[in-house]
Amino acid sequence: MAGSTDFDLYRPSEEHDMLRESVRSLAEAKIAPFAAEVDEQGRFPQEALDALVGNDLHAVHVPESYGGAGADALATVIVIEEVARVCASSSLIPAVNKLGSLPVILSGSEEIKSKYLAPLAKGDAMFSYCLSEPEAGSDAAGMKTRAVRDGDFWVLNGVKRWITNAGVSEYYTVMAVTDPEKRSKGISAFVVEKGDEGVSFGAPEKKLGIKGSPTREVYFDNVRIPADRMIGEEGTGFATAMKTLDHTRITIAAQALGIAQGALDYAKGYVAERKQFGKPIGDFQGVQFMLADMAMKLEAARQLTYAAAARSERVSLGADGRAEDLTFYGAAAKCYASDAAMEITTDAVQLLGGYGYTRDYPVERMMRDAKITQIYEGTNQVQRIVMARNLP
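Structure (tokenized):
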């Protein structure tokens, strides 16, 4: 069989490589310098938001027809990965903008898309996703938030928990029960605005990691919204929510990749400089084996994540109708990459020894940040259930 120099099946395109370079430069110049302070103070990374919006990288997934960059799923992954490499909290800006707005993209009417995607693309607003509740975490279909029809309006009552960027985002995709008899088929999706009367927020959660990304409860107290704010048909909200997660779990895998890459890069540099017993500790075989395992796990996770992103794009374009295939790959990428990130960051702390345990070095922050990737958008135990039900 003849060989070919342009056999690009298993590598990102030149455009993707160029995107990575530009995002990495931006992240190192404008986001990395504030990462430790953002974590220490538990404050929103405004510098990162300004830099991302200024370079049109805050919501690259928004289609061009609504003023967005129209980036494909792999490009979105690369943006999130490169931001997470220096600051996991900041990477939740592009990641959650996609999570919050994807239900609108997948199921919304043309009117709702135009109304909410354009300000998102411009950087005038951020989007959050309200699915989880105090009593409905892994069992999201057990939610209690209600939406009751009242003429041309819906009235929402309830509470959502663990909402990323709550209070900062202008727009919220909210899942609520419209027919309690039907369980998951009685759930509908709505866009709620921060300024709607009756919307309020709890105190920021005190978290182990991603401290720069606010996580709050969102309260709906007789929130009255126009009926045209429903996303898709009544009763289709849960299906839209699950379809959304098939695509966005891949962005959590991307975040995990970035955190792991940042930890590996730092550890690699450290062991080349740190001397013990008269030579750099990187010369010792035990250390080399650890680095080799870290790099191997990271590369395996990256290949799986990029393959999942390619599937996500094909499903979006309608070129590949097998959505259950995406369900498996999205869950596998998220689960594998987050487990790998936890192992790699833990090993990075170990390689730095006592220094790794201090806040003077970034790897302890990366280890704390990595943990959440095993938990949110479906715990890794739930991902294994999802995979088992959707074996390719």
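Residues 43 and 316 are 35 Å apart (CA to CA). The radius of gyration is 21 Å.
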